[in-house]
Amino acid sequence: MSESPILELRGVSVGYKKPILKDLTFSAGRGAFISILGPNGVGKTTLLRAISRHIPALSGSVKIDGREHTTIKISELAKILSVVMTDKAAPPLLSVLEFAALGRHPHTGFMGKLTARDREVVTEALVAVRAQDLVERFIDQLSDGERQKVVLARALAQEPRLMLLDEPTAHLDLKHRVEVMGILRGLCRTRQLTVLAAIHDVDVASKVSDLVLTLKNGTLSAVGRPEDILTADAVSELYDFDKAGFSSRLGGIEIRGDGDAGKAFVVAGKDRGTLAFRYLSKKGHSLSVGILEKSDLDAYVAGALNAMVHLFDPDTDDPDVVLAKAISDLEDANLLVDALPGTPWGTREELGKKIVETARAKGIPVITLGPDGDFSPLARHFEEGDKISLLKAG
What we know:
This protein is an alpha/beta fold and 394 residues long. The chain has two domains: 7-234, Rossmann fold (3-Layer(aba) Sandwich); 256-386, 3-Layer(aba) Sandwich (Rossmann fold), CATH 3.40.50. It has helices spanning 44-51, 74-80, 96-101, 105-108, 116-128, 144-157, 174-191, 202-208, 226-229, 232-239, 274-282, 297-304, 319-330, 347-361, 376-386, and strands spanning 7-16, 18-28, 33-37, 59-64, 67-68, 81-84, 162-166, 194-198, 211-216, 219-224, 244-247, 252-255, 263-267, 286-292, 308-311, 335-338, 366-368. Strands 6-7-8-3-9-10 form a six-stranded mixed sheet, with helices on both faces. A five-stranded parallel sheet has the order 15-14-13-16-17, with helices on both faces. A four-stranded antiparallel sheet has the order 2-1-4-5, covered by helices on one side. The radius of gyration is 27 Å and the shape is elongated. It starts with 6 loop residues before the first strand and ends in an 8-residue tail after the last helix.
């Protein structure tokens, strides 16, 4: 692209008297959604505050729209850049329409009088964030999710080319988290708005971002597409995960069992074992899983749960060798779950059937799941053993 980036940092250090983050270098293209990831306290908010000139950068160059941002007048900067922080803005006695109209301040001059054009922009901003039905309500009477949409409308009313957001979905319920992120993603496409957002949900960032910046140990540890840099190992290292694993294929985090309940072997495949894997992990089991193809969804979930996964490639692998390794792994299992009853038998399924037969011969308890991976037989087994009482509707 010949067009210059909307945001460019070169050798930037930020902090309060002493650097929190050092030597940051990256650029943001127009219309991109860029997420900043990193553990709490790493400096995500400090970086946003330095870019927005709430605090000065300690060193380096910050360019916005091709110009050093310290040379741009604040009134002009507010027409290029808008900022949405985590504070719960709820000024009393302001309607939603009046609050959103505050975003036109950089455009209205000293008297702050709205023109027909200003009112049109405010209305468009409210429609863009799906808050047009809230215009007659007062801002301090809104829910957190409704208020966040109106805050976004105020920021959009500035007609920015770059928007900085600090944890834009903090304090929101699931519905509004999904809605807000969808709105922001859509604005990048429809308005060529560049979004730079500090986000704490790596799974959300992996799904909405064009570019991800990861911060750790006072520096920029990685920059790139989420598909490239948010690998299982990279995410675990970034957040120092101990009991969890991230799957880039699934775009989500799986919580691992402690293994104190022993090892369960799950005969799975064709996406029929996933619910059982998660259930067994919740119950404290470590996992072994087989026999799977590398591309099977079950393999990705099991891998994120740190399971021992037995794979079979019919083009390259000897089935007898794969089966022998799986049966060896079965030796110290205290439970086997068969997630493939009644499936059409191919080579992998035949191998799985032999593992089930071996478990029965060894006296290992076998639990057979229902059709399509229905794990209720497994749940009943644990509910009876733990004497868990479930409230049932009706």
